[in-house]
Amino acid sequence: MPAASSLFSRIFLGLLAGAFALSPMLSGAVEPTRIVATGGRIAYTFYTPAAANTSFWQRTPHKLGGPVAEMQVGFMDWMYPTSGAETPNVANDVTISQAWLERASTGQVVPLLFNGLRTLVLPMNSTTPYWLSDPIPSASWTGPPPAKDEVFWLHVKGSIPSGGKTPVGTPANFTGAKCIFYPPANDTHNPDMAGAVPAITGQAARSQGLPLIFLGRFTGPGHLSVIGVGDSILDGTGDQANPAPVISGYGFFNRAALDSSGGNTIAVFNLTRHGQTAYSWITPSRQTRQRPFLKFANVMVEEYGTNDLGQGGTGNPTEMLARVEGIWSAARAEGIQKIVRTLLMPRTDSTNEWSDLAGQTPKPGWGAGGKRDDFNDGLVAAGQAGKFDLLLDTLDVLADSADRNRWRTNGSPNYTAADDAHVSRSGNELLAPHLRNALLSLTVDRSDYASWAGDVDWREQDPTPGGDADGDGVENIISYALDVPPVGSAAVGALPTGTLDTTTAGGPWHVFTFRENLEARDITVAAESSPDLATWTPVTPDGTTAILETISANVDGDGTAALRRIRLKQDPENPHRFMRLRVEH
Fold first, then answer.
1. 110 or 497: which carries more pLDDT confidence?
2. Of 167-181, 222-236, 410-424, 559-573, which gets the smallest average pLDDT?
3. 481: left (phi > 0), else alpha (psi -120 to 50), else beta?
4. What is the pLDDT of residues 477-529, one digit of tens each?
5. Helix (H, G, I), strand (E, B) or coil at 515
6. CA 282 → CA 324, 330, 332, distances in Å?
7. 214: which of 37, 149, 475, 551 fits an S-S bond (Cβ 3.0–4.6 Å)?
């Protein structure tokens, strides 16, 4: 039998209430939907093919970042320009007629379905950020379940009207990948085939295909799902090539997904755009479709600031810091557990293609003691204040060791800099392991009592779930469920509280405020109610007599806990109510 604990606390107005801290009936048996593979990216432009080429076929590789219980793919019909706002496809619908996954190790093919159908229409001029396929459970695949480092090829066939356009962004230029537009009458090939996209008469090839995100559910917690948010530097400008340098794409962010042997994959999704700013990201009139992707990640790498400061150094470092803090706050609110922030890199002119230090001159505001340094100093302070989790010192790798306002050189052109602001191919190769090591140092999905307890200084007291390490009457398992320290006094407001609300419409209401450990997946929590302390029944919010509200989705600022409130309508014939939280472990 599982151990059960209940915590009670006396509150005012003749009301006796127990503390409860999780959404009703929450169970951690199923992992959340996450980014589970490489190869996903938003669109950067629209492509209008020749009028006759109304059909398309793309094949892109996606490498798993861990063993998965299921997989699904999301598609988009909008793009993010170099400046300004997200732009929907206002010209036409895009129709996906067939899509399927091909397991590289066996050649087995499994179709993608959309609400049980093969066809998905991406409607024009939509504000929807993505359209998801139905999940494909791992049981659909013959042989062993899909495992970390396995490659799955995504095929997508579809059409647009004559003269129409599609958004493009997903790299389709790794060896074996392809994206073509062609006259539909020339396609004699059946769908659901394995292998390379065949040559079709009249085809026009593109190096990028439809934007997509590769999602699924890992079989257990602890796997990194990383989203990159930033401008052209994180996007990989300076490292683009055909074919793509590695299966995960180009740029140090995508390169960091793989180790030196091309394995031990980290699942990544590139939510970046050349030329964009933190200002655009936090401005609702410019960006509304990107934030919904954050919930699919547990780690964010954020890099904005280069374009906010500008090549003329006109940006205000204080305003820039406020903008990136707005991004971090949005990430925490969407469930991001860990945030990695990069230092701004050098920005210099050069007389000799950045081959030596003497030929470089920092841009205005980018020199020693200038605005770039002010912004970087502000990032250091923000990190020390706990506003993000890890500061990636990109200057250790890419800047001159004696002058961190100039690019590192070795006598050859473009060693670390492709131009005044962008990292070169060799620079991306140098920086990728630095980011990778930082990502691998992070612990995510702290999902069980043992891992939580391992981070506690128990001061030689009882660390077991049923123990009470500080003798305050709150068992350790309850502290875990509430995400409060089990040793020492809890902060004011950390333990549940209760009041009687006689002013809110529809009342009076018994109001209970409580914390929820967002990472606890090995406990079952049930809020129960009783009129007499003898008969207990579960409390199930119904929106009328029992209302569950979120006061703060990120009450501690680190993504681990939320602050909830439940309103239970008072029964005029039986105004007294008892509540308790049952925690089973």
1. 110
2. 559-573
3. alpha
4. 888 888 888 888 666 568 888 888 999 999 899 888 888 888 787 887 777 88
5. strand
6. 8, 9, 14
7. 37
193 CB-contact burial (10 Å; exposed 0-12 / middle 13-18 / buried 19+): middle
* Backbone phi, psi, residue 327, to 5°: -65, -45
Cβ neighbours around 334 below 10 Å, total: 19
pLDDT at 582: 78
Distance CA 540, CA 558 (A): 28
Cα separation of 392 and 303, whole Å?
A: 10
Cα-atom radius of gyration of the chain, to the nearest Å?
Answer: 27
CA-to-CA distance for 411 and 353, rounded, in angstroms? 10
Q: pTM for the full model?
A: 0.82
Q: What is the mean pLDDT of residues 3-21?
A: 34
DSSP 8-state symbol, 114: B
Rounded distance, CA 197 to CA 217, Å? 28
Phi, psi of 478 (to 5 degrees): -70, -40
**How many residues comprise the chain?**
585
Task: Please tell me what DSSP assigns to residue 264.
Answer: S
The pLDDT of residue 327 is above 50: yes
* Three-state secondary-structure class, residue 400: coil
- In the 8-state DSSP scheme, what is residue 432? H
pLDDT for 313 equals 97
Helix, strand and coil content of the chain, in percent to the nearest 5, comes to: 15, 30, 55
**Distance, first Cα to last Cα, the chain:** 9
How remote is the C-alpha of 459 from its chain's centroid? 36
For residue 430 the two structure tokens come to 């140098």
CA atoms within 13 A on the CB side of 229: 30
3-class DSSP state of 343: coil
As a whole number of angstroms, the distance between CA 202 and CA 210 comes to: 20
224/204 Cα distance (integer angstroms): 37
Contact at 8 Å (CB) between 355 and 348?
no
Task: Answer for the pair 165, 48: CB distance below 8 angstroms, yes or no.
Answer: yes
